[in-house]
Amino acid sequence: QMQLVESGGGLVQAGGSLRLACVASGRPSSVGTMGWFRQAPGKEREFVGAIRWVLPITHYADSVKGRFTVSRDTAKNTVYLQMDSLKPEDTAVYYCAADRQARYSGYDWADNYDYWGQGTQVTVSS
């Protein structure tokens, strides 16, 4: 079964940057979209960004647009989330997820994703 392993979380000051990585093993060829979600204590899990695997079209939540960038390295089976200009409101556990569909829509719905990583904590101090 496909496995996703995340890394790169940590503590950073407001205005700083972090890059998260998610390495996929046993990736089926049918997986078409990789997404990033986050969840803060007491809040619902929310969409952050997504990328199609073959044709790397990206989508972002309005709250992170212009600050976060999703990319992938096909040779390494890795998807990245580059986070710049971090704010305290970005503090959350960040999850990567894989969807079998290369979607034009619905990429922001967690229920559409079939595989999930364990999550990595990002804490932004003010």
Helix and strand topology:
Layout: E1 3-7, E2 10-13, E3 18-25, E4 33-39, E5 46-52, E6 58-60, E7 68-73, E8 78-83, E9 92-99, E10 115-116, E11 120-125
Parallel strand pairs: 2-11
Antiparallel strand pairs: 1-3, 3-8, 4-5, 4-9, 5-6, 7-8, 9-10, 9-11
What would you note in describing this structure?
This protein is mainly beta and 126 residues long. It is built from no helices and eleven strands. The protein has strands spanning 3-7, 10-13, 18-25, 33-39, 46-52, 58-60, 68-73, 78-83, 92-99, 115-116, 120-125. Strands 2, 4, 5, 6, 9, 10 and 11 form a seven-stranded mixed beta sheet that branches. A hairpin with a 4-residue loop joins strand 7 (68-73) and strand 8 (78-83). It is globular, with a radius of gyration of 13 Å. The chain starts with a strand and ends with a strand. The mean pLDDT is 94.
Helix coverage percent of residues? under 10%
How many DSSP helices?
0
Unreliable stretches (pLDDT < 50, length at least 5) are none
Proportion of residues in extended strands: over 45%
Q: Name the helix and strand elements from N-terminus to C-terminus, one letter apiece.
A: EEEEEEEEEEE
Shape: globular
- Overall pLDDT metric: 94
Largest sheet: 7 strands, mixed
What is the strand tally? 11
The gyration radius over C-alpha positions equals 13 Å
Structural class: mainly beta
The separation of the N and C termini measures: 40 Å
